[in-house]
Amino acid sequence: MKIEKNLEEFESLGDEHIGTSESTPMRHDAFRLSNEEKIDIIKDDVRHIMETLGLDLSDDSLNGTPNRVAKMFVKEIFGGLDPKKKPSASTFENKYKYGEMLVEKNITVYSTCEHHLLPIVGKAHIAYISNGTVVGLSKMNRIVDYFAKRPQVQERLTIQVVKELQEVLNTKDVACVIDAKHLCVNSRGIRDIESSTVTSEFGGKFKEEATRREFLDYIKLDTKF
Ligand SMILES: [Zn+2]
């Protein structure tokens, strides 16, 4: 049975920031065009938006904006749509036999809300318990950054980070908490400047109360360096 949603329903889904799927919804022909071809098309689209808004693009300050935005979309803020940019899965053997929880906290998150295309800015905290494999610490930052560089829903970002690390580390014992501000909430709409959104995903042993509590206690520590 095909479920049809009218435009109004889609509008309110977006406004409530409800994502509809766990993986990023991609078109089947997503990679038919090269990045350079995409930049070329998007450049014209951005120009069209700006001109429709009434801006005079012959002004020196605005002249380069369409090209700059197009390059930024394809290569930077939405660069994580390109699977070729996925961080390589290099892992190490856990030589020290460290069997406790490893926590990497305060990983900077710069993402973009897929419902308004406005920034999501926050911190990710990740933990895992090694079953013999470890990853370099910077790898966790790179995985967060890769999935953040897409139009996102914070819940999906959290799940994607956990799933990727579960795969790389070959264990279910991975957890991630993301605490982030959504500029679409903070700067427009209801303009709630102070609020932030916390999402979490707990895999394997992190579903157990004691393990989950240990992780949450670590990330509560207010370390400033
Ligand atoms: Zn939004």
Provide tags for this entry:
single chain; 225 residues; alpha+beta; 5-stranded mixed beta sheet; two-stranded antiparallel sheet; 8 helices; 39% helix; globular; binds zinc ion
Briefly say what this structure is.
The protein is an alpha+beta fold and 225 residues long.
Can you describe this structure?
The chain is α+β, with helices and mostly antiparallel strands. Helix content is 39%, strand content 20%. It contains 8 helices and 7 strands, in the order ααααββββαβαβαβα. The chain has a 5-stranded mixed β-sheet. Strands 1-4 form a two-stranded antiparallel sheet. β2 and β3 (119-129) form a beta hairpin. α2 (35-52) packs across α4 and α5 runs antiparallel to α6 (154-169). The model has no long low-confidence stretch (mean pLDDT 89). One of its GO terms (cellular component) is cytoplasm. Its EC number is 3.5.4.16. It catalyses: GTP + H2O = 7,8-dihydroneopterin 3'-triphosphate + formate + H(+). This is GTP cyclohydrolase 1. InterPro entries: GTP-CH-I_C/QueF, GTP-CH-I_N, GTP_CycHdrlase_I, GTP_CycHdrlase_I_CS, GTP_CycHdrlase_I_dom.
